[in-house]
């Protein structure tokens, strides 16, 4: 990437001292997070009073910043929002679930041993009786990698038991790129593929390391209200049963069937693996589902460019969190989402204020706050499928999700390890503040596929999701790693993700300076960043090249 090297040199020239740009107010950031994550916002669940309050707050802040509406058109005028139709699915009443082990029925407690999602295939009730279980390894069908975990097995009327992550996760080498997760490792792929294979249901075996989060996150994310895009044939994407089970639970079932879980897992890490039936183990479940179609909202604000207004630089982040759910050990039922993603939305608001005060950029700048990220990137997927501003003329997307509200770090990261010019620009920009790039420290967690930049990336738009660094000025890498580990274990997707008075927000003030400079430089240029020549997203971007000719 010769051009990228030249770019870095040019951008970094003469930038030993701190770069110019607006300053950001830590107190304002703190107040935004405190407000958005307060109990009054009820965890910012889509299609709730919390959504109404959140959308109203965002519009109020964007108006105050001097921005213009950038959403749907109505009667020739832009609205502040883009309507996002979603399927809403909620289990009504108790979940009756049991496993039969050698003819003896054992009840399963929802949220404890098993986490069953509300069916999203259009059924208003689910009734499964003594369905056989089949272990299908990692549940991957990847012809381009000469990999097929199914080997022609008939899964109709059966439950597929599947491992999370890729076959390479534990070995660190193989057909799936080693430790870094591919899309085949994501739970979204597992559920979709089992439906394609004709299974009546899916059980993903939870293990903390390959999932990258503990059981409380699984429970809290899967036992509350579920959402999906509105599909013409939802049964092609969703089986009747979509669930997770605890590892110890799976081990006991395998033992009952005369199988060794760890031995089979090792076999599943090879292309020779063949599906194995859990003889003498069957599953039954029954529950009702309230299925509705609702309308949620993406919030879209814009500053029109002075010279090339049809070119668009996007800052994005999700406004939603998990809403109200199961109580934690303290009885708290509100999943406040202070870090995830009160921080990203606070950053977006203050970036909008900075742009509103500054002279207009040559290109347009859009601030896109999306809904239903926590339900599978649904708001960003809808925008990418129904863009308000053409993707071919979208210069780049800069996404912010769960920034650190603490002290400054010596480095930054991004979700995943994709190679693109936009990253080269970000590296060069951050160097102005003596901030180094740290490659994704946990590529095995699949963060690239878990952030709102992904729907845009897979359509070719250069997109990146910024992550705060872990090498802190106060305490170094040890302190940063401990902070992230503590958050993941104790607060991520839990009611404890609440605003804290002790947060300094010093790191965010510097992060926002970097992201402001990156976006503004792009918005004042005629450049069109692209993916590396060997990127899987390069082809999609190149296909839209004609839209940019003459610009």
Q: Can you walk through the features of this model?
A:
This protein has 551 residues and is an alpha/beta fold. The protein has two domains: 2-15 and 28-79 and 304-544, 3-Layer(aba) Sandwich (Aminopeptidase); 88-291, Glucose Oxidase, domain 1 (3-Layer(bba) Sandwich). It contains 15 helices and 22 strands. The chain has helices at 2-12, 26-36, 49-64, 187-196, 208-211, 215-222, 247-256, 261-268, 338-357, 378-385, 421-431, 454-457, 476-490, 506-523, 538-543; strands spanning 68-69, 73-74, 77-78, 81-101, 104-107, 114-116, 125-135, 141-142, 147-148, 159-163, 201-206, 226-229, 241-246, 276-303, 308-318, 323-324, 334-335, 363-370, 394-400, 411-414, 436-437, 463-468. The strands form four sheets. It has a 16-stranded mixed β-sheet that branches. α11 crosses α14 (506-523). The longest helix has 20 residues, at 338-357. Mean pLDDT is 94; it is low at 1-18.
Q: Secondary structure elements and their pairing?
A:
Blueprint: H1 2-12, H2 26-36, H3 49-64, E1 68-69, E2 73-74, E3 77-78, E4 81-101, E5 104-107, E6 114-116, E7 125-135, E8 141-142, E9 147-148, E10 159-163, H4 187-196, E11 201-206, H5 208-211, H6 215-222, E12 226-229, E13 241-246, H7 247-256, H8 261-268, E14 276-303, E15 308-318, E16 323-324, E17 334-335, H9 338-357, E18 363-370, H10 378-385, E19 394-400, E20 411-414, H11 421-431, E21 436-437, H12 454-457, E22 463-468, H13 476-490, H14 506-523, H15 538-543
Parallel strand pairs: 7-10, 10-11, 11-13, 15-18, 15-19, 19-22, 20-21
Antiparallel strand pairs: 1-14, 2-3, 4-5, 4-12, 4-14, 6-13, 7-14, 8-9, 14-18, 16-17, 20-22
Helix pairs in contact: 1-11, 2-9, 9-14, 11-14
């Amino acid at each position: 990437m010769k051009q990228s090297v030249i770019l870095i040199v040019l951008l970094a020239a003469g930038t030993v001292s701190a770069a110019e740009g607006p300053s950001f107010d830590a107190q304002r950031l703190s107040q935004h997070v405190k407000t958005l994550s307060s109990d009054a916002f009820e965890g910012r669940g889509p299609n709730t009073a919390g959504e109404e309050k959140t959308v109203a707050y965002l519009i109020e802040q964007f108006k105050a910043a001097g921005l213009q509406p950038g959403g749907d058109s109505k009667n020739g005028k832009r609205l502040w929002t883009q309507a996002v139709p979603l399927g809403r699915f909620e289990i009504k009443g108790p979940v009756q679930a049991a496993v039969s082990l050698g003819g003896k029925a054992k009840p399963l407690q929802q949220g404890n041993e098993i986490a069953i999602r509300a069916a999203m295939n259009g059924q208003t009730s689910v009734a499964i009786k003594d369905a056989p279980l089949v272990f299908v390894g990692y549940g991957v069908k990847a012809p381009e990698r000469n990999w097929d975990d199914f080997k022609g097995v008939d899964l109709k009327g059966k439950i597929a038991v599947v491992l999370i992550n890729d076959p390479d996760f534990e070995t660190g080498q193989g057909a799936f790129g080693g430790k870094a997760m591919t899309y085949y490792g994501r739970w979204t792929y597992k559920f979709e593929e089992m439906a394609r294979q004709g299974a009546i249901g899916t059980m993903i075996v939870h293990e903390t390391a390959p999932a990258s989060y503990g059981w409380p996150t699984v429970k809290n994310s899967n036992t509350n209200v579920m959402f999906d895009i509105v599909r013409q044939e939802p049964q092609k994407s969703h089986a009747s049963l979509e669930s997770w089970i605890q590892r110890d639970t799976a081990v006991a079932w395998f033992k009952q069937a005369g199988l060794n879980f760890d031995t089979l897992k090792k076999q599943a890490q090879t292309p020779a693996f063949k599906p194995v039936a859990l003889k003498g183990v069957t599953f039954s479940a029954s529950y009702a589902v309230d299925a509705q179609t609702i309308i949620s909202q993406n919030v879209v604000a814009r500053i029109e460019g002075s010279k090339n207004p049809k070119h668009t630089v996007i800052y994005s982040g999700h406004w939603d969190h998990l809403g109200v759910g199961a109580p934690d050990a303290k009885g708290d039922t509100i999943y406040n989402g202070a870090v995830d993603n009160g921080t990203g939305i606070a950053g977006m608001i203050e970036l909008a204020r900075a742009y509103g005060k500054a002279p207009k950029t040559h290109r347009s700048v859009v601030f896109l706050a999306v809904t239903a990220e926590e339900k599978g990137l649904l708001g960003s997927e809808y925008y990418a499928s129904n863009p308000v501003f053409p993707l071919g003329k979208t210069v780049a997307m800069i996404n912010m999700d769960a920034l650190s509200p603490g002290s400054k770090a010596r480095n930054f990261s991004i979700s995943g390890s994709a190679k693109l010019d936009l990253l080269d620009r970000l590296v060069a920009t951050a160097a102005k503040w003596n901030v180094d790039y740290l490659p994704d420290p946990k590529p095995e967690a699949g963060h690239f596929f878990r952030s709102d930049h992904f729907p845009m990336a897979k359509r070719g738009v250069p997109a990146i999701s910024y992550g705060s660094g872990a090498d802190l000025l106060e305490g170094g890498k040890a302190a940063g790693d401990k902070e992230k580990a503590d958050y993941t274990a104790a607060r991520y997707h839990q009611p404890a993700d609440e605003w804290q008075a002790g947060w300094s927000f010093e790191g965010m003030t510097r992060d926002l300076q970097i992201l402001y400079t990156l976006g503004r430089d792009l918005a004042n240029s005629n450049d069109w960043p692209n993916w590396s020549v060997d990127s899987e997203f390069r082809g999609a971007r190149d296909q839209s090249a004609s839209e940019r000719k003459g610009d």
